[in-house]
Amino acid sequence: MLLLRACRLRCTPLTRNMASPGRCAHTLSGEGSCAIVFGGFGFTERALRRHEMLYEEHGFKVLPVLSTIPQLVTPKIGWERGPALAAQVQEADAPIVIHTVSGSFWTAIFMLAHLDPDWRERNVRAIMFDSCPPKSDVNAFGGWLSWMLQAKTGVPARHIKPLVRHLFHPALPYFGIDSTWRAQNDAWMFGDEARGQDARTLHPRAGANVADCQALAEAAASRALAEAGGSGDDDGCVVPSSAACLFVRGRNDPVLEPQYIDAFYAHLKARTRASVEWHLFEKAQHAMAVVETPEDYKRQHVERLLRQVPEWQQS
């Protein structure tokens, strides 16, 4: 009961599944599998439903995780929720896909870290990284607040962010986002604390257009593969090397630092035995591509994530 109150986690009956235009259910089936869908900063049940429906229409059982902002940004709460979520997911004992949006990335990482490693490698079949991972710094939080203020006032986030980012210098330590937590998160993401710290201190680089962004991401992937000697093996990364992954984001997202996401994408691509792909939406706002470019979002989600898992394909 504690988990249900804290996470608002519920099982979605498959009887809610409804067909939608362009549905490809005859060649894709999640029957017998689960989708764990994490809502991001400020998500409502209505907002989360848009992501749930991506899986319902293909027969997945959906477990939505709707969180408050303090739940998302407080490591102490993450240490409590992570094991509880992991236990509930393992109890279902089914192949799973994880869909994490914005700052819910950290909750998803806590859960992954507390899954039994053998179970995790066997059952976590795919992960969707939507507008994440953010860096746990004042630029990310200032970017999120500036984006929210832009939506309410119309003042461009690029003008607001340099001012409001400073509000988070005292706020982050208050919530417990400190060097100890960052070191642990670095190890969970990159398998090694030093490698994660290097990713957080990369010089900012952002492409001027989609082609530039793609080139930067693929250059990062090539470097990571070369540095890994062709294998990319590590001991501490909690993302299974057997899981298909898809990263999606908007090109001018004020919350994200592209080179940080590219570093994580590159690390996973260098170590994986499955598909790790990347897609950029030219104009989509932070965590809003599912609303602003729904057909492209669905197409990328199906073709470049779900179809990469053999057991979800139908002949």
Structural class: alpha/beta
Q: What is the end-to-end distance?
A: 41 Å
Main sheet makeup: 6 strands, parallel
* Mean pLDDT across every amino acid position: 87
Low-confidence stretches: 1-26
> What is the CATH level 1 assignment?
Alpha Beta
Order of helices and strands: HEHEHHEHHEHHHHHHEHEHH
Number of domains: 1
Q: Fill in the CATH topology.
A: Rossmann fold
| CATH structural architecture | 3-Layer(aba) Sandwich
Q: Using DSSP, what is the number of strands?
A: 6
- With helices defined by DSSP (H or I, 4 residues minimum), what is the helix count? 15
Strand content: 5-15%
The CATH superfamily name is Alpha/Beta hydrolase fold, catalytic domain
Q: Over the alpha carbons, how many angstroms does the gyration radius reach?
A: 18 Å
Strand order of the largest sheet: 2-1-3-4-5-6
Shape type = globular
Helix content: 40-55%
